[in-house]
Amino acid sequence: MNTLISTSQLMQFAFGNGEYLPPNTFSEADITAAEERYLVPVIGPALYEKLLAGEYAELRDNYLARPLALFTRLALQPRLDIRTGQCGTTAPKSSWGEPADEESLRRQCRALRSQARTLLRRAVAYLETHPGKFPEYLPEKNILNRCTTDGGFVQIR
User: How many Å apart are CA 7 and CA 29, to the nearest integer?
Assistant: First the structure.
């Protein structure tokens, strides 16, 4: 599967140095799902295909990799907070830690979403100030130029 970032880049960009995750916690399919849900509606399918083909490395590495990693973590986070096994779905608990409460989990997801959106808007600003470099990008197709949800309000332009 071809993705804009690798699973090792996801780990590097979206998780802190002290956060340990077992191997195979996530896959390229998780990254692809985040690309389709969060990036393609903003940058458009034509630019996305060029990025997948290896073009515009600066845009990918400097502007899109980090918000993509954060959006992927945001999608994964509920799965990371629970475990499924022989006893069904449980929250992990050990002698040195216990699961975070619901409010802490909500605050973490809000912070992840806010940071990812801010970085994605930065990428869009870069695209829109350099239209000659990215002819595949069509601002009128960018969903953020038509509809956003800021502060809990849906804003349609």
Answer: 10
Its pTM stands at: 0.84
- Per the domain annotation, does 65 fall within a domain? yes
Could you give the CA distance from residue 24 to residue 35 in angstroms, rounded to a whole number?
19
Number of domains in the chain: 1
Note down the domain range covering 55: 7-81+102-156
* Cβ–Cβ under 8 Å, residues 134 and 56: yes
Q: Please write the tens of the pLDDT for every residue from 33-61.
A: 999 999 999 999 999 999 999 999 999 99
Other C-beta atoms within 10 Å of 27: how many?
Answer: 13
Q: What is the CA radius of gyration of the chain?
A: 17
